[in-house]
Amino acid sequence: MSHTSAIELRDEARRLLNEIEAAEELRTKERLAIPQQEMPAQEPVVRGGNMFEVTYGYFEEQAKVEAARCLQCRKAPCVKGCPVQIDIPRFIQHVADGDYAGSLDVIKETSLLPSICGRVCPQENQCQEYCTVGKSLKDRFKSVSIGRIERFVADWEAGLHGLPDDVVSEENPLPPSARTDASSRPTTAEAPSPAVSSTGNPSGSIPEVKAATGKRVAVIGSGPASITVAADVRREGHEVTIFEAFHKPGGVMIYGIPEFRLPKKIVEDELRTLEAMGVEIRTNFLVGQTRKLKQLLEDDGFDAAFIGTGAGLPRFMKIPGENLVGVFAANEFLTRSNLMKAYDRDKAETPIFVPRRVAVLGGGNVAMDAARTAIRIGAEEVYVIYRRSRVEMPARAEEVDHAEEEGVIFKLLKNPTRILGDEDDRVVGLEVLEYELGEPDESGRRRPVPVEGSESVIDVDTVIVSIGNDSNPLITRTTPELEATKWGNIVTDEFGKTSMDNVYAGGDIVLGAATVILAMGEGRKAAAAINRNLAGEPDPEVAEA
Amino acid sequence: MEHTILEKRQLSDQVYMMRINAPLIAEARQPGQFIILQTDTDFGERIPLTIADADSAEGWIRIIFQAVGGTTMKLSRYEEGESVAAVLGPLGHPTHIEKFGRAVCVGGGIGVAPMFPIAQALKAAGNHLTVIIGARNKDLVILEEEMRAIADDLVICTDDGSYGRKSLVTEPLKELCESSEQPDIAVAIGPPIMMKFAAATTRPYGVKTMVSLNTIMVDGTGMCGGCRVTIDDETKFVCVDGPEFDGHQVDFDNMIKRLASYKNQEEVARKACRVDAAVAGLSREET
Question: In DSSP terms, which residues pair with B5 in a beta bridge?
Answer without folding.
Answer: B20
